């Protein structure tokens, strides 16, 4: 029997610190009922027709009418703390769905009556406990949090619970669907909850207690939801990629998103002819321009991952970065043959970085047991065959991104001091972008201290600015709804001006 001599397990896997919604606010921001920061003027009436969401949809990609005037800004500052009425009671109702109908129309999955039955027309809703979040991976709170939009209500179980309102852009108009909206508890009128991929800022809110309705996702994402979050499998409805599935009368197709394993773009084709594409998180690439669903028929509304929707975000292709990482590794090992190579990674994503090193050097990959379990769930023989359970048996280790600090790595090296005298580490993230580096990887300067060398490499699983532009120009959608970095009006206006430019002519 071989006993593992691995060091004490590295810190828990963590999630990708995306520059997500509300990034500029560091997660501390008061949001209105639509999920936008509460700097917007109150309409003065509770009319749903004049809600920000309704205006937003009406205005297509031209949001100029939504900008604050100076006077509005002053008023909204005053209004901010004075308590706000809910402008958007329920977008599903605006779109003509009655709550009772919506509940009755659930096609599949366990009954929701136990969780959502709040007495028909009652304004009370079923809500989620604050602790009802991802159980294994910490929720980094990347999506903007909102203390003020949280409401205490009494659930049907008689417990006081807290929830947030589901932002409008997570609800697919004309359907009873939401996308990546699990942290809001039971979303009124929602018959199907779609999950684009297994990153916690998207699945946050899912747990073994989930009982609000069927979850639709890719088969791999479904496996992870069940395995890592212990969600009741009766709620999980895996949808094969590239196949049309009819759900509540809507044709739904998942397409490969080029993000993390299992990540999907979701294409909705409504009975009224409207077509939406929700990108979840994605890295646009040329291959997507050949997806016949996207190029042969117009997408009316594009829900776009705008993580790097700023021209300063230019980074090289994944392939260029992988070649660079392999080259640096080989060169380093020539000079320091007793080097331990470490790649930082989130719970899922960035696998190709250590796979590339593994293939180029013909070495196994060491990851701790919890990561190995996840990687094996991918069902990729290429990867599973390369995993090893003993850190002494290979020079290539995968560690949580948070471990990639000089002091932490120094400690880590001590555990393997018999074999290794130095560490070369890679931190693959779009965040390492620097304007000076841009596309020239050779300009990257590692952090080096003693026998620890750490390279930040711009290996991004989100689209660069120019990739977003190409994608939008191929699709030419009628409307674009950004889903990331929408937390302030200036950002939104800036993005809208890019969209206008791209769709000119
Ligand atoms: Zn993601």
From TrEMBL:
PANTHER family from the UniProt entry? DNA CROSS-LINK REPAIR PROTEIN PSO2/SNM1-RELATED, DNA CROSS-LINK REPAIR PROTEIN SNM1
Region called Disordered, residue ranges: 1-47
Query: Organism, per UniProt?
Result: Glycine max (Soybean)
Which UniProt keywords are listed?
A: DNA damage, DNA repair, Nucleus
Q: Which lineage do the record's taxonomy fields give for this organism?
A: Eukaryota, Viridiplantae, Streptophyta, Embryophyta, Tracheophyta
**Comp. bias regions, Basic and acidic residues:** 17-26
Q: Where is the DNA repair metallo-beta-lactamase domain?
A: 382-488
According to the UniProt entry, its GO molecular function terms are: 5'-3' DNA exonuclease activity; damaged DNA binding
Q: What is this protein called?
A: DNA repair metallo-beta-lactamase domain-containing protein
| Single GO biological process annotation from the record | interstrand cross-link repair
Entry-linked InterPro entries: DRMBL, RibonucZ/Hydroxyglut_hydro
Give the UniProt family note. Answer: Belongs to the DNA repair metallo-beta-lactamase (DRMBL) family.
């Amino acid at each position: 029997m071989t006993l593992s001599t691995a060091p004490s397990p590295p810190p828990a896997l963590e999630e990708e610190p995306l520059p997500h919604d509300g990034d500029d606010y560091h997660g501390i921001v008061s949001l209105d009922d639509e999920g936008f920061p509460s700097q917007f003027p109150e309409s003065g009436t509770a009319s749903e027709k004049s809600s920000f969401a309704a205006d937003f949809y009406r205005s297509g990609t031209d949001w100029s009418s939504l900008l604050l005037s100076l006077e509005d800004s002053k008023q909204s500052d005053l209004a901010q703390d004075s308590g706000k009425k809910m402008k958007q009671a329920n977008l599903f109702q605006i779109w003509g769905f009655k709550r009772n109908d919506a509940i009755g129309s659930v096609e599949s999955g366990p009954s929701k009556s136990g969780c959502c039955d709040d007495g028909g027309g009652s304004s009370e809703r079923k809500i989620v406990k604050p602790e009802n979040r991802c159980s294994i991976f910490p929720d980094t709170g990347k999506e903007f949090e909102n203390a003020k939009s949280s409401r205490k209500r009494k659930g049907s179980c008689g417990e006081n619970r807290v929830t947030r309102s589901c932002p409008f852009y997570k609800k697919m108009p004309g359907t009873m669907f939401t996308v990546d909206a699990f942290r809001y508890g039971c979303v009124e009128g929602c018959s199907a909850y779609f999950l684009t991929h297994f990153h916690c800022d998207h699945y946050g809110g899912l747990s073994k207690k989930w009982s609000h309705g069927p979850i639709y996702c890719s088969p791999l994402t479904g496996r992870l939801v069940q395995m890592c979050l212990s969600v009741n499998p009766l709620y999980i409805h895996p949808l094969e990629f590239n196949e049309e599935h009819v759900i509540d009368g809507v044709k739904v197709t998942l397409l490969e998103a080029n993000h993390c394993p299992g990540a999907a773009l979701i294409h909705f084709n409504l009975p009224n002819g409207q077509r939406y594409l929700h990108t979840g998180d994605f890295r646009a690439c040329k291959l997507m321009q050949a997806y016949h669903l996207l190029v042969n028929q117009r997408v009316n509304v594009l829900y776009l991952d705008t993580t790097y929707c700023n021209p300063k975000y230019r980074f090289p292709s994944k392939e260029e970065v992988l070649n660079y990482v392999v080259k640096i590794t080989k060169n380093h090992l020539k000079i320091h043959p007793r080097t331990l190579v470490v790649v930082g990674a989130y719970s899922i994503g960035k696998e190709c970085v250590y796979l590339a090193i593994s293939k180029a050097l013909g070495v196994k990959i060491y990851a701790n047991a919890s990561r190995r379990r996840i990687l094996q769930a991918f069902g990729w023989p290429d990867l599973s065959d390369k995993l090893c359970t003993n850190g002494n048996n290979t020079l290539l280790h995968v560690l949580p991104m948070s471990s990639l600090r000089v002091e932490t790595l120094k400690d880590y090296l001590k555990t393997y001091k018999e074999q290794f005298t130095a560490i070369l580490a890679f931190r693959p993230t779009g965040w390492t972008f620097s304007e000076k580096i841009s596309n020239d990887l050779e300009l990257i300067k590692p952090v080096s201290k003693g026998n620890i060398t750490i390279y930040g490499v711009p290996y991004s699983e989100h689209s660069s600015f120019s990739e977003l532009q190409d994608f939008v120009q191929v699709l030419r959608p009628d409307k674009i709804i950004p889903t990331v970095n929408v937390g302030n009006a200036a950002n939104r206006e800036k993005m809208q001006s890019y969209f206008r430019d791209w769709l000119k002519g």
